[in-house]
Amino acid sequence: MEQFAPPNRKTDVSSEWLHALLEFALDGIITMDYKGRIIAFNPAAEKIFGYHSAQVIGHTVSEKLIPGSLKKVHESGLANFLATGNEEIIGRRVEVTAMRADQSVFAAELEVISVNPGSTPVFMAYLRDISGQKYSEKERLQYAINIKKTLMQTILAVSRIVEIRDPYTAGHQRRVAHLAAAIAKALKFSEERIDGVFLGALIHDIGKIAVPSEILARPGKLLDEDINYLKIHCRKGYEILEPVNFPWPVAEIALQHHEHIDGSGYPQGLRGDEILLESRIICVADVVESLTAHRPYRPAYSLEKSLAFIRKRAGKCYGRQIVAACSELFEKGYSIDAIDMDELTWMSSLS
């Protein structure tokens, strides 16, 4: 009677374990030979890519799973690894773009390991579809953008309250905001910081709500006592805005926008770097806009005369770099009068 050798339990158990790992893994597992040809494609990979394993086995990864624009990159990377043994992707978790059976592309997290069961390497790629996660990130970004737009629109509405009480300066804060943001951009501020300059300027005069309307609307030259009363708007603006948790120093801007770097400004007589850079920028924009606008007690200055005014005081009242940036903007064609007064936002970081 023929004797049968008992099964090699060690080999069988290992094989069963590997089969179970491939079959029930939640991540797609793709096994490839040294030429990039697919030799195994687990059920999770079938679900992710929309292929049955029989449709991809024997084909290269480039043919089936990689978008056309990225095929050369993949193939050159594989060739480099086989020639030198060096490949950045091996053993590292990276984010890649993959392609489904329907030709749609998606974001995936990938880790590739190299094994050498014989004389040539075999690659096992562990892949996870993260397109849903990416979509959630996109939704969160859009939500943040919508919140920022709402914030800007709310601040614009608040700024118009001041204009209603001070008709002679209608549009002043918006024009100052646009000019200040343009100066900040010229000074290489980050987009987020430019938004802060814009919004701070948009309500820098909010404290005028506390100034009697007869002073704001007085047609003649203001008396000294009126000017002293008007100066309270900086502190009042700070008191109004300080309780609000803005992501920018909006309250400090309202408080400091009449400070001068030589200490001659008000209300605190701050000097140099004691004054926020945002406040120093808005101070210059405020002066230029005010001088070029008509007031009941004086005609509007020409642009040339207004720029000469700030240049003469550069390094004394106003920062030299800020004055230079402001002057250069107008030399390049910037126009306060060309501003769209219905524009709701400084669109630096919302694109």
**Sheet having the most strands:** 5 strands, antiparallel
Evaluate the radius of gyration. 33 Å
Structural class: alpha+beta
Topology as a string of helices (H) and strands (E): HEEHHHHEEEHHHHHHHHHH
Give the CATH superfamily of the largest domain: Hypothetical protein af1432
Proportion in β-strands: 5-15%
For the record, give the distance between the C-alpha atoms at the N and C termini, rounded to a whole number.
Answer: 83 Å
Percent helix range = 40-55%
Shape: elongated
Return residue spans where pLDDT drops below 50 for at least 5 consecutive residues.
Answer: 1-13, 341-351
CATH uppermost class of the largest domain:
Mainly Alpha
**What is the count of DSSP helices, taking H or I runs of 4+ residues?**
15
CATH topology of the largest domain: Hypothetical protein af1432
User: Mean pLDDT, as a whole number?
Assistant: 83
Domain module tally:
2
CATH architecture of the largest domain: Orthogonal Bundle
- Structure summary, number of beta strands: 5
Strand order of the largest sheet: 2-1-5-4-3
